[in-house]
Amino acid sequence: MAKFTSRSFHQLIRGRRRQLDLTQEEIARRIKTSVAYVGHLESGKRHPSPTIVVKLADILGLDRRELFFLANPSAKTLISDAPGTTGPSAWDRFRQDRSLREAHHITDDELNLLSHVALMGNVRSSRDFIYVLNTIRQSLAPED
Questions:
Q1: pTM for this entry
Q2: How far apart are alpha carbons 71 and 13 in whole angstroms?
Q3: Is residue 79 classed as helix, strand or coil in its secondary structure?
Q4: Which of 2, 41, 45, 142 has the smallest C-beta neighbourhood within 10 Å, fewest atoms?
Q5: How many CB atoms are located within 10 Å of the residue 38 CB?
Q6: Distance between CA 26 and CA 38 in Å, rounded?
Q7: Nearest to 70 by CA among 2, 17, 138
Q8: Rounded CA gap, 38 and 23, in Å?
Q9: Does domain 9-71 have CATH number 3.30.56.10?
Q10: Which letter does DSSP use for residue 143 in this model?
Q11: What number of CA atoms fall less than 13 Å from residue 61's CA on the CB side?
Q12: Does the structure show a pLDDT above 80 at 4?
């Protein structure tokens, strides 16, 4: 699948929706959200959750990984496609570090989400997982 580097997240999803001749109403119904939210995503006024990114990728026929990175450009710098070193992976070390997870109040749902991030490539350290998690938490936090 083609790389999306020349477009922003909101430009890509708007363009692809139009290319598929879908309305914002149809997209909203399929991802179980409001038409206004879809409009905000397409105008760049809102940041999508990882769940919404996956749903949009599936509906629009886009690569999940590439769409996630387009929506979260800072996350891409944390993940390398280079083969890992021998020994436990950063994910294994992170997953087994109960004190770190407790210190950051990581829920089982968040741990599950991070397991999907781990599948995208080799994260270098537990600290990188915390950064990704905090980025996701921030994107989901209600605006003041």
A1: 0.55
A2: 10
A3: strand
A4: 142
A5: 25
A6: 10
A7: 2
A8: 10
A9: no
A10: P
A11: 7
A12: no
How do the domains of the chain map onto residue ranges?
A: 9-71, 75-140
Burial of 37 (0-12, 13-18, 19+ CB in 10 A): middle
Q: Please answer whether residues 73 and 91 qualify as being in contact, where contact means their C-beta atoms are separated by less than 8 angstroms.
A: no
Task: Check whether 83 has a pLDDT greater than 60.
Answer: no
Of 126 and 75, more confident: 126
Q: Taking 90 as the threshold, does the pLDDT of residue 65 lie above it?
A: no
Residue in this structure with the two tokens 């936090």, named with its chain if needed: 141
Beta strands in 16-132 (DSSP E): 79-80, 122-123
- Paired tokens of 102: 């407790």
When pLDDT is averaged across residues 8-26 and rounded to a whole number, the result is: 94
Q: How open is the CA angle 24-26-31, to the nearest 5 degrees? A: 95
What lies within 8 Å, CB to CB, of 138 at 6+ separation is: none
The partner residues of 122 in beta bridges, in order of sequence, read 80
Q: Does the structure show a pLDDT above 50 at 2?
A: no
Q: How many residues would you count in the chain? A: 144
Nearest to residue 121, comparing CAs of 75, 86, 88, 87?
75
The mean pLDDT value for 69-73 works out to 86
**10 and 44 in contact (C-beta within 8 Å)?**
yes
